[in-house]
Amino acid sequence: MRRFTLIALFCLALLAACGGDDDAHEAGRLTVDDVTANLALPSDTGAIYLHIHNETGRDEALLGATVPGCAAVEIHDMIMDGDVMKMRPVDGGVPIPAGETVKLGHGGLHMMCIGKTADFAVGDSVPVTLEFANAGAMEVTAEIIDPTDSHMEMDDD
Predict the structure, then answer these.
(1) Whole-number Å distance between alpha carbons of 131 and 92
(2) Single pTM value for the model
(3) Strand 136-144 relative to strand 70-81: parallel, antiparallel, unpaired?
């Protein structure tokens, strides 16, 4: 009986070691917080802000997103062109180096809801499905904020 128990424990330990590839675990260490959406304005567009923390040990990239009530979601950046601040789409996604935090906020990188097809009210929430190069899809919830409160701090802490 003791021999059977030892063999069973050995097999159980062997099965536990075969728990799948590391990507499934790494997705759990990619975290997103401070998710807000400036979607309550009476316009066809709005912005989505968030922080992405990559503690996976490997580089990641945010490729895009979907939001119910938005015909499309694009990643944009703000750049200076001479004396004029301009917004431009980001092609190829946003790199998120291993061990780093990337902030998408007012005045810098952010996501734009293009073609709003729903009415959003301050205080409501909306699901945002983020698409990552390695981690795949991750759903987070954005709080709809007052447009006058949309100026997130973009400091480096």
Answers:
(1) 12
(2) 0.76
(3) unpaired
Count Cα atoms within 13 angstroms, Cβ side, for 86.
8
Reported confidence tier of residue 138, pLDDT bands at 50, 70, 90? very high
Pairing of strands 70-81, 84-89: antiparallel
**Residues 58, 56: Cα–Cα separation, whole Å:** 5
Would the CA dihedral through 129, 65, 47, 53 be positive or negative? positive
DSSP letter (8 states) at residue 82:
T
Predicted confidence at residue 76, as pLDDT, reads: 97
Q: Are 126 and 21 in contact (CB under 8 A)?
A: no
Query: In the chain, what's the furthest Cα-to-Cα distance?
Result: 82
Judge residue 58's burial from the number of C-beta atoms within 10 Å of its C-beta, 0-12 exposed, 13-18 middle, 19 or more buried. Answer: middle
